[in-house]
Amino acid sequence: MPDLTSLQQQAETELAQAADAEALETWRIRWLGRKGLVQQAIDHLATLPREERAAYGKAVNAFKQAVQAAYEARAQALKEAQLAAELTAEGFDPTLPGRRPAVGRMHPTTRTLRDIYAIFAAMGFQIYTARDVETDEFNFQLLNFPKGHPAREMQDTFYTTVPDVILRTHTSPGQIRAMRDYAPEPIRVILPGRCHRYEQVTARSEMMFYQVEGLAVGRNVTFGDLKGTLVAFANQMFGEGRKLRFRCSHFPFTEPSAEVDIDCIICGGKGCRVCKYTGWLEILGCGMVHPTVLRNGGYDPDRFSGYAFGMGPERIAMLRHGIDDIRYFYSNDVRFLRQLGW
Ligand code: PHE
Q1: What is the best residue among 212, 253, 283, 311 to mutate for testing ligand 1's pocket, by most ligand atoms within 8 Å of CB?
Q2: What is the whole-number distance in angstroms between the Cα of residue 91 and the centre of ligand 1?
Q3: Does residue 285 have its Cβ closer than 6 Å to ligand 1?
Q4: Which residue has a Cα nearest atom 4 of ligand 1?
């Protein structure tokens, strides 16, 4: 029968000699390993006559626990000793300030979107989230772009393997979805989200960008309401006293249509590189909702009218912060994000 008392003494003596992690591990395998000395002492139980088993079992259990406890205490002591050695080692100065963890911040697009939401929320617009993956019907046909219409030329997109399921080229299909959700109630919504266009990526374009669409439908909604809303928006977004210019334009889903410019916020209208010496900066497209589109949304155009507008938040951020290339927004250069994030 193994002499557990002297075995334990032996284990402790050897343990005291294990001076580093490596020696400790060798000791652990020798004593506490699967085929180690402690296990051997336990295995001895099976060879004993029945009447001796209870007493030996109790003793060997206590032995095992004592060896394990000694091991844990030694491991802890070695760890502390090592830490203490590192702290007093040459070249280590615990009084140096710590390293700052990298803190993320808001992307310039997110920040601009939130500013836009706040301005329109104060004017009673709700945010309506429509889908990014659309059908040809909603993206084009219900907005008066039948198949083969030349206005589609400006908005080629990405196609999925499902026929007529595409990535939306603008947020305008959300107009139809919002109207169909609310008709015949009057609505005032903004629809933010990602849009995709299949185009050559140049300094002036990205294949993915955001838009914020606006839509108001009700009784007697006029072009004057549209103008007032956009003037209020521009003054809050770009500073009081902005001048707005409405230029005749064409969109298949609005009639009449306009593009809106503000007087250049860099040069105040005198002419500079940013406004290309015109004194004006284009900020959005807009118009009165076309009667066919109202009907497609579930409103009777004889009783209801509405206006819509669509703007690019990246473009707005570019104008506000003098950024000259839209590709900075999604190229993930942290220097850009650090400079312009909030
Ligand atoms: N959807 C148009 C575009 O992407 C913008 C627009 C929206 C124009 C709403 C008029 C009304 O170019």
Answers
A1: 253
A2: 64
A3: yes
A4: 170
Provide the number of structural domains found in the chain.
2
Q: Which residues constitute the domain of residue 70? A: 4-88
Q: What is the CATH number of the domain that holds 179?
A: 3.30.930.10
Give the tens place of pLDDT for each residue, 211-225. Answer: 999 999 999 999 999
User: Residue 136 is encoded by which pair of tokens?
Assistant: 């040809």
- Integer Cα distance of 314 and 328 in angstroms: 10
Residue 196 near ligand 1, beta carbon < 6 Å: no
Q: Does 129 reside within a domain?
A: yes
Token look-up 């399921």 returns 165
Same domain assignment for residues 157 and 216: yes
Q: Above 70 in pLDDT, residue 201?
A: no
Q: Are strands 126-127 and 187-196 parallel, antiparallel or unpaired?
A: parallel
Task: Count other Cβ atoms within 10 Å, centred on residue 182.
Answer: 19
Which tens digit of pLDDT belongs to each residue from 68-84? Answer: 999 999 999 999 998 88
**Whole-prediction pTM:** 0.72
Q: Is the CB of 173 under 6 A from ligand 1?
A: no
- Is 100 part of a structural domain of the chain? no
